[in-house]
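sanity check this record:
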Amino acid sequence: MKFFTALLYAISGLLLFDKQAFIYGIVIFLIAIFLTFKKFRREKKVIIFHAVIFICFLIYGLLEIKTIQSPEAIKGIVIKRSENYFVLFDGLERFYVNAYNFRDINLFDVIEINGYFTEYNFSVLESDFDFNLYLKNLGISRELGINSYSTLFKNYINCSLFQSDIISQFKSEKTIELLNTLILDNINYNSAFVKQLQSNTIFYLFSLSGIYLNYFIYKLVDLLSVRFKPFLSNILALLIVSPLLILNINSFVVLRIFVVCLLKLISIKRHDYDSLKYKSLSYLILLINKHNLYQYGFIMPLLISTFMQFSKLLFKRRKWYIKKFVPIILIFFLVLPFSISFNNSFNIISILFSLVFMPIIRIIIVLFYPSIFMINLPFIEPIMDAFYDIIMFLDISVFNIKIPEFSPILVVIYYLLIFSFLYFREINFKKFYEVAMSGYLAFLLFYCLPIKNTFTNSVSFINVGQGDSTLIRVKNKTILIDTGGSLTKDIANDCLIPYFKKNRIYKIDEVIITHYDMDHYHALENLKADFKVGKIYDYNNFSERDNSILSIYNFNTNFINVVDENSKSLVLWFGLNDKSFLLMGDAPIEIEHELVKKYSNLDCDILKVGHHGSDTSSSLEFLKAVTPEEAIISCGLNNRYGHPHESVIENLESLNVKVRRTDYEGTIEYVL
């Protein structure tokens, strides 16, 4: 079985989930057909067999299997355990279970739950980790609530306690951070260290991955082969590394490596050792759970393995340092679309970091390994602390080119260009691989240029939770109306600035604060401290006016003797291209009535509903006067104020106005 033809049906399940997955599947399909085309006549049976398996995977992917058990008495095994939740698998369906009050339930416990089914929906702000998507990619569509439970089988091996014992050997917080990140896969995304890695776009180098684990196993097998036969060498290497695998048993990477090692042992025992063959079979086995297709630990090794097969001539008859470093450079470019999706930036200097740090991290993993057996080497902490300090000192973020993540079509173009270069290099078609390389470099160059912002305008209602923030972009000029604000989250650095950077916005030319409620202005100070901000306006210095960027008019000018902050709120109207927008701030019904009396024409296409959908705003009389086509409600999911109010939704729906909400859709953007 050839590796690439095996990829045909190893990846076929991707075709049924979303556009990006569909495109990945089509690319691999074309590669497989192309590579087997010349041998088609003598491999008809193989191709037919692959086509049958391909169709079977498509049918399997269409099936949405639900449990047949009643939620009042559902039995299952805990297959994933986190601090506040676990995933229960009953043999047919996976469930998210909130386990904050059930801390004694361990991984691999078999339990029976008396509970109830419900839909999960977690609040996600702009640039936040999307936990809803994460659960979906795990194949979880429902939450299982617990009334009571009983344990049918108790697993007394608690890996989290084992991890705590390992951590307790060390006193240095810096060493512990490295240990958690590189060995225990306990990554603190809010730590200064992880933020520094993300800022330098080298985070992928510092997470426990198959690159390091496979290298560790490979070197062990190499050493043991001096004394033992291949089969025994591989078994011993797997046994030596098994404590590290057990510590991270929740990780998909560990599952994949275990399957690959097992198949390798079988192939060696049968004297039929073929690395391509057992890798292909490992992907097939992992696809028993079709949702593994969405794990980065599945997709990235698949891509790397695939394209590395076309790179042999890049290393053949080359000097040792080329053989050593070119694969690292190639891996950097192969994972680049994923790195961009995490960081929204591209940094060519980080290649040097890859060349330097990848070998160092391999050594660090080896140095940390004795600590798993509670052997604390005295020189470890000084070395790790020094390494930590070096990472924190080095800052290459100044070289970051901020770019949005690739669309699915661009992902296809990106990998097809790399594939074309490597393939034509492999078969020594010089003109073709030179054209492919030129095309690849041109693709990266043009994608890094802010072409979109030069030729388009946009209005974005940014998802800042329970608050307001609207970004107007006129070509490369920007106006921010309100900043949002929260007492528990840094809205400026966690929401606004990441959104600006991934949309290639490097300066806010004007900020307009509609009024001084915390959820409209509180992020302003942090925004000014960490981002370039121009002029700032509020109701004290803003009036009906034109400016060089955009004509914006304020309809609420009667606030001089007003005490109530909401009644002072600016009510802003502007037109952009063929769309008109009316932003109500937190203006109450009384202000709405005054506006209806004062202005004969309040028409707009897009209305940002007043006061987050509260029933103190959006009267039916006002909505009839405004006649919007769409209404935007900016609010937090399940907020304590009950926004938006049912009466407001009813008023909008009675007028056939399309309602859009940031708590449901996230950031809502109009590109004009």
